[in-house]
Structure formats: C-alpha cells, structure tokens
Amino acid sequence: MTPAEVDQMKENVAKVKERLNRAAAASGRRSEDIRLIAVTKYVDSQVTRNLVESGCHCLGESRPQLLWEKGEKLQDLEVEWHLIGHLQRNKIRRSLLFADTIHSCDSLKLLHAINAIAAETQRRMNCLLQVNISGESAKQGFALSELEAVVVEVQSLSNIQLNGLMGMGSLGGDLDLNRKEFSQLRESLEKLQSHNGGNVNLRELSMGMSSDFEVAIEEGATMVRVGSTLFDGLM
To answer: Which of 190, 204, 200, 196 is nearest to 144 (CA)?
Structure first.
C-alpha cells in the first residue's frame, strides 16, 4: 500500500469507530462493550497487516484457508482471529490453531466435531451459534425454534465454550426489517440465558455488517462484523 492508501485506511478505521461510539451512546451503552470485528476476506495479508497497524486487532475471516494463510503470515502481530464463515468438518483441526472464536457453528454435527478435536488438543473452543434470523434459504444456521434444544445438548460438550449467538440480517437494505430481526435474536439470547452455567455463558451477540451495524448496536450487538466500509477508496 502507498502512504496515501495507509492514511486512507486509518481514516476509514477512525470513522467506523466513531460511528460505533455514536451508536453505542445513542442506545445508552458503553462503546467498550462492543467489539469491532474487521472482516478481511477481500484483502491480502499485507493490507491486513496495515489494518492491524491502523488499530484493528480483532479480525474476521470467512474462509478457513485464508484464516490459516493470514494467521501464519501475521503471527508476529497481536491479533484475535474470528472465523465467521462456513466451516466444514475436515477443516476444523487446522482452524483451531488460529481461531479464537468460531461464529458460524450451524449444526450439531459441527459442534460435536469441534468438541472432539478441541478435546484432543486440550482446549475449550469459544463458539457462537449461527442463527438464520432472516429465513433466507441461501443462509445457513439454526432456526430460532431450535436454539433451546441445541443449547441443552451443548451443555454436555465440555470442550466447547458457548458464548452467544450470531445472525445476519436480510439482504436488500431494509433497515426496519433488519432491526426487527436483530431484536428477535436479542430476545432469544435473553431467554436462553436461563441455561447459563458450566460451559454455557450466553453474553455475546454477533450481528450487523457494514450496511447495518449501527442498527445492530442499537438492538444489543456486542460484536459487529465490518468489512467493505473499512476499505472505502482502496478497492
């Protein structure tokens, strides 16, 4: 990246953080309770390095292979990696070497497989349940009606630390619809908190992307996954 592009990135990061701070204040929340997950799926390792140096230390990758590649190349940096895209069972083992949190746990088979491999490596893996809050057939995840039974089953998976829920609002830019979906996810999390204890501590809501993260914050998001806005003027 040129010096001008690096400056542009720093400006973009500052603007996103300011928007996050304003949304938090408007909803009576503390900005430090909301983590910006900078999504790096469209950029290479060098741009990702510049992003970290611009102040983003929580990074989100959609593809496990890119998580492995960037995790290896950037291991000299202080980075907390979040896997936010679909994870196939044959990619779990290597992904656990890099991911701090897996947002996209979308089936009980996947959760059982993560638990088994985490047990082999003697760790407890931070996980979120991916919920299909929009009902769109192209999206994966649990239905809201399935969540309680899933949480109860996860209580027996001692190498998973279940921390919350992840959801994506409907595509199309209808912020009122997105707000309704985010509100439903928050309400579901609150109901499920009666199961907290042991390896279940449901406190995280990962929701909101570049187009709707402020609405997500207003509805209770504790993590927002922002990508394209951080690279305005650079791509």
So the answer is: 190
